[in-house]
Structure formats: C-alpha cells, structure tokens
Amino acid sequence: MDRTSPSDAGAGDDTLLALGPAIVLVEPQLGENIGMVARAMANFGLSDLRLVKPRDGWPSEKARAAASRADHVIDGARLFESVEEAVSDLTYVLATTARSRDSFKRVRGPEEATDELRLRMGAGQKSGILFGRERFGLSNAEVGLADEIVTFPVDPSFASLNIAQAVLLMSYQWMASSARGRLPPRFSAPEAPPASKDDLYRLFEHLEEELGRRGFFRPPERREVIVEDLRALLTKAGFSEPEVRMLRGVIRSLTRKPADGDEK
Amino acid sequence: MDRTSPSDAGAGDDTLLALGPAIVLVEPQLGENIGMVARAMANFGLSDLRLVKPRDGWPSEKARAAASRADHVIDGARLFESVEEAVSDLTYVLATTARSRDSFKRVRGPEEATDELRLRMGAGQKSGILFGRERFGLSNAEVGLADEIVTFPVDPSFASLNIAQAVLLMSYQWMASSARGRLPPRFSAPEAPPASKDDLYRLFEHLEEELGRRGFFRPPERREVIVEDLRALLTKAGFSEPEVRMLRGVIRSLTRKPADGDEK
C-alpha cells in the first residue's frame, strides 16, 4: 500500500474515479460500520475516507475485518479532530440528513447531488459528503458547515438507514451518475446476431411440414392464419444461428420414435 | 406465516408500493442478512419478500433483530422449496449477478432495470428480482429461469457486495425510478403480457421430457448444459400465454405419429 500517492488508491485506471468525493464520517461509533463504509466505497471506486473522532479509536481491527478486502480504503483513512478540519481542503460539501430540517440550505436527492458533484469535479473542485453519528446524525452546527443537504427518498413511514447503507447509496449513485446517458453495460453479453432469414425460413418449413403431416393445421382453411402465428412467435426472439440450429435439432428429435436406452 | 393468502402478504396500504417487485432470496445463509434485506426493502417501500430454503430455517430471531423495525416485511415473508415455485406467479424476473456470464440474456444496469420493472408494473405485470447465496450467488440454472440479468456498475477491481447491499441498491433504485417520473423511451408495453413462469416451466418440462425419451441429451453428462441453453432460448422471447399454449400444441403434435388423412 503506497500511502504517498493517495489519489491512486484503489481507483483503478480511471482518473475520474480517483477524483471522487471524500466520505467524511462524523464521530462514527462502531468499527464494523466504518469497515462496511470502506467496503461500500471500494465497490464504487471511492477511496478518500476521513474520520472525525471515531469513538472506539483508530486503527480498528473490527473495521478492517468488516471492510472485506477494502484494505486500501482502511489504510488510507485519515483522522481529524473536527468537521472543520476534515473538510478544510474541500470546496463543496454535502451533508446527509435523514429528516427534513429547519434550514435554508438547498436539499437535493442523491441523483441530483451526484450530478452536482460531477459538475464540480469537472471544474477541478474537491468535494466531500458528511455522514453523521449512528445515533443522532449530524448536529445543526455541522450541517451548517455544508453547502447543501442531500437526503434519501425513503418511505416516510419507515426511514431507517445506517451510515454504511447511506454511504453505499451515495457511492453507488456517484458511479451511476458517471454511467448515465452513456450507460455502457460493462458486462453486456455478447449479443449473438440473429440468424439469416434463410436459416429462419428453413426452420419454418421444417416445422410446418412436420406439423402438417400430423394434422396440426385444423381446420385446413385456417392453415394460413396458424402458420402466420407460428412464424410470428418464432421471429419474435430474434434467434441466433446456433439457436435456430438447436430448434431444428429439437424438431428432428421430437418427430422420432422414443427408443430403448433413452431416458424414461 | 400465512401461506394461504400470498397476494396480501406484508403489503402496506399504498397500492403503488404494494406493486413493487418481489425480492427473492435464494438459499440465504445468515438470518442477519435476511433481516438487513427486510430493512433495506422497508426503507424503499417494498414488502414482498420470498425465501427459497433459508439455510438456518424460518422464522429467525436473528433476522427479526437485524430488520430493525421492519417487522411487516419479516412477518409477511414466504417460504419456498425452489426458485421455480417462488416465481411461479410472476411474469418478469430479473437475476442479479456479480460477474459476467456466458449467457444470451440481456444485461441491464439497475437504473435501466428498474425502469423496465416500472413499465411492466404499469402494464399490470408482476415482477421479481432474484438474489443468490452469500457465497456463490445464483447457479447458472437459476439465472436461466430469469428473463434478464441485472448487474451493478461496481469497480471491476473491487466487486464485493453482499446480498443486503445488493437488495438495498435495487430497492433504492426502484424508489428513485419513480421519483424520476420519466419512462424509458424505447418501447411501449408489450402487446400480450408474458406467460406466468409456471406456464413457462411446464412448457420446459413437457419439452424436456419428450426430448429425453428420444435421446436428445447426449452425452448424458451434458444434459444440464443443454437444458440450460434450451430454456434460455425459450425465455428470450417473453412468450405470452397463448404463445406458450401454441408451443405446447406443437410439441404434442410433433410427438405424434403421422396419420393417414393428414398433409403429406
């Protein structure tokens, strides 16, 4: 772990990821929660973790264990004595709150907030997000230090997110906001191209011939309509060439007599 | 646990919320995780929790404790013996996977996936999302039962979401997609709704039985792989109930002996 180049930590190749917002935990109580926060961040390419007076001290073995393998985030975490110190190098700070507050600050949803974060980052600004204590969140004074408030669209009748969950959602939304618009599904399956029409038509003919021999088209004057439905059904999926080949094998097999030695 | 009135289970007063996707946990191991899943769901107005063979049994006091106060989700959870059973009343099923898979299924990001879920719900369809085991996720056969795959835009160098985190993200995105209030541009609701999974699975069984009797699965040790491919192929088109009925008629017909008086 190279602690002299914090901007590279865990961010992979993409410089944009390395520029993600700092995650600032204010007086977190449980090491486990800090670990789960690190894990959440690492999943979405964030690595700048800042701790303001963690109750049970730092470093924390419980945090490391809960972080799964997000050691780079745990190792790179920095300690501060106050929120003011923790955000001193930032230019745009969001405070997460669970409840609405008497405040004149602008309140954003996560999506709008991460859009704003990206905008600021694009302009070379450093940003951060404050998360409060497990028990009572952020004090009014701490919220007062932030530029804007971000809150989650939770069901008002059941609002109960812990800090690790809140960090997970913001980290996810941060990553999602980069993908939005372009949305390159990273794991997109190699979409097999549809079979040629010729392949498809030979499948139709094969099937229709075998069905015709078995009296499928009844009454005969409805043959055309039924064929049309069948073809529509077989066209719908855009079957690939291997899929068409498999279907022809299925037809060949089904029209055979069951043989000894096959499954019962 | 009331297994006799599935449609009422745990749904709150709000009809829209009650229409959210079912969350299906496949062989979850730890009660704590199930509880955290319930808590995540409750935050975002989801309540239809389905458990396929939870390892440590059900009900679970650990689950209840971890659920915070999401008792309505825990109390309404339903138990199933298989994924097939758990999704039998649904018409659109997403499988969450962490890794790319050799599959011809369409892969969506969470945002796109929840847009699709809303579209389907708007058309009166019932949907669900499958989440795999803590250790190794979903089997290929289980993924094969789903219509499409949803995966998270995680950092490829650190992909480590547990099931509670994955459920939290999908639940959040579900809520966020309603807040966005915009529908995906691409297609309007499908003309005929897809058949229920139960109908589809009976088609699978019918076809596989007839093929098995005719030695289609060769060599026998490849049976599972071939079945998987077949099912993927038959799932792809999102066949409607009349289409599934037609396909079953096709199978019945093909497995008959050609008779006199039929077409030549």
Automatic annotation (TrEMBL), chains A, B:
GO biological process terms held by the UniProt record: tRNA nucleoside ribose methylation
Catalytic activity, EC: 2.1.1.200
Key word Methyltransferase present: yes
Catalyzed reaction equations: cytidine(32) in tRNA + S-adenosyl-L-methionine = 2'-O-methylcytidine(32) in tRNA + S-adenosyl-L-homocysteine + H(+); uridine(32) in tRNA + S-adenosyl-L-methionine = 2'-O-methyluridine(32) in tRNA + S-adenosyl-L-homocysteine + H(+)
Cellular localization per UniProt: Cytoplasm
Pfam (any one): SpoU_methylase
Its job: Catalyzes the formation of 2'O-methylated cytidine (Cm32) or 2'O-methylated uridine (Um32) at position 32 in tRNA.
Family annotation (SUPFAM superfamilies): alpha/beta knot
Keywords from the named record: Cytoplasm, Methyltransferase, S-adenosyl-L-methionine, Transferase, tRNA processing
Organism: Consotaella salsifontis
Protein known as: tRNA (cytidine/uridine-2'-O-)-methyltransferase TrmJ
Enzyme class, first EC level, given as a word: transferase
GO molecular function: RNA binding; tRNA (cytidine(32)-2'-O)-methyltransferase activity; tRNA (cytidine(32)/uridine(32)-2'-O)-methyltransferase activity
